[in-house]
Amino acid sequence: MRRASLAALSVLAALLLAVGCASEPDESASDAASDPEPPHEEDETDDADGEQTGTASQDDEGEDAEGEGAEGEGAEEDPDDDAPDVDPAEVGANELGDVPILMYHRLREDGGGEYDRTPEGFRAELEWLFANDYVPVTIADLLDGALDLPAGTSPVVLTFDDSPSEHAQLDEDDEPEPDTALGILHDVAEDHDVEPVAVWSVLPNPFGGDPDEAERIMRWLHDQGHELANHTCRHEPLSGRDDDDVAEDVLCGERVITDAVPEAEVRTFTLPLGVWPDERSLAYEGTTDEGDYSHDAVLLVGANPAPSPFASDFDPRDLPRIRTGSWDGGDPDFESEFWLDVLEDDPDRRFVSDGDPDSVAFPEELADRLDADHEDRARPYARD
Ligand SMILES: [Zn+2]
């Protein structure tokens, strides 16, 4: 079983607060150390073509998104039409529970550093997740509150940082190469009949450095329902830099995606090394001579499950992620095994769907967690 020993857990519990405070510098060092390729030198030339196309398409995409939102609201007027006949108490529905957002870096046969996984460890974690009723969703799904999951299942967001070559490769038939993170995800998801979607925080010349291949992979990911997230061009801490410098770096990162997939709406920004800019708003909104950007979500490094998108403490611009890594490979703090066990053991803490995407079901005693914006969808129920 993946459950850690009781001794390890009690040590962890004692360490949680202290390590939480110290985790960001650790992550900076490790993240930088495990970086596949320094991205920034080539990307200026790579970004030069297609900038205007990207900007124009961003605007178009914004209008499309508004249109879809309006349709969604219309559908909500008839929530009972296709609501499944599920007793929320029977499936233990709790749509105000937390959602784990897992953070992956490199896949290394030797286990790599403390943020890395072996391919076997990664596969085993996916097997465990899908066997234990987790279903992958994207950050965009959380933002839209569009969690259309089978009754009794829970959302999990799989995020992959820094786009090293082993994250995603496609063969000549556009199939994921089986030894990549993408290939492993698709393989395990097919076995468990879940949709293989994830969030890929890409750097310039992602997935091995060949620009044509990178474009083919990003396009494929987008078309298959994966989410591409901005991770800047330089992949350096955003603190201690002047505002223009930060904004240009963030816009450059967005164009890594929109140059390859002009219609992609880049909604998620992943803080490089988990470090905020001095002016925090520049992580989600900025203006430069080259254009503007705006993101709906900001992903952090560390350290706990994220609140439900229907909970009052859900802040999409401040989303924590759970670190993953080999249990034996580094300090046993904030590892996914620990947090997945916490969610497993505490039904009030884990998000569990009632199977009806139009309602927000929860045990009535948890009602004070509900965000006022979702009161009209609330489906409180009595337990026992
Ligand atoms: Zn990174």
Comma- or semicolon-separated keywords:
384 residues; TIM Barrel; six-stranded parallel β-sheet; 12 strands; disordered N terminus
Structural description of this entry:
- The chain has 384 residues and is α/β, with parallel strands linked by helices.
- The chain has one domain (23-58, 88-378): TIM Barrel (Alpha-Beta Barrel), CATH 3.20.20.
- Helices cover 36% and strands 12% of the residues.
- The protein has helices at 6-33, 40-48, 51-76, 88-91, 119-131, 139-144, 181-192, 211-223, 243-260, 336-345, and strands at 101-104, 134-137, 154-161, 199-202, 227-230, 268-270, 285-288, 291-294, 297-299, 322-323, 360-363, 378-381.
- The strands form 4 sheets. Strands 1, 2, 3, 4, 5 and 10 form a 6-stranded parallel β-sheet that branches. A two-stranded parallel sheet has the order 6-9. The chain has a two-stranded antiparallel ribbon with strand order 7-8.
- Helix 2 (40-48) crosses helix 9 and helix 5 packs parallel to helix 7 (181-192).
- The longest helix is centred in the N-terminal third of the chain and has 28 residues, at 6-33.
- It is globular.
- The two termini are 31 Å apart.
- Zinc ion binds next to loops.
Termini gap: 31 Å
Q: Number of helix segments?
A: 10
Mean pLDDT: 82
Helix content: 25-40%
Shape: globular
Q: According to CATH, what is the class?
A: Alpha Beta
Helix-strand layout with pairing:
Layout: H1 6-33, H2 40-48, H3 51-76, H4 88-91, E1 101-104, H5 119-131, E2 134-137, H6 139-144, E3 154-161, H7 181-192, E4 199-202, H8 211-223, E5 227-230, H9 243-260, E6 268-270, E7 285-288, E8 291-294, E9 297-299, E10 322-323, H10 336-345, E11 360-363, E12 378-381
Helix pairs in contact: 2-9, 5-7
The structure holds zinc ion (ZN).
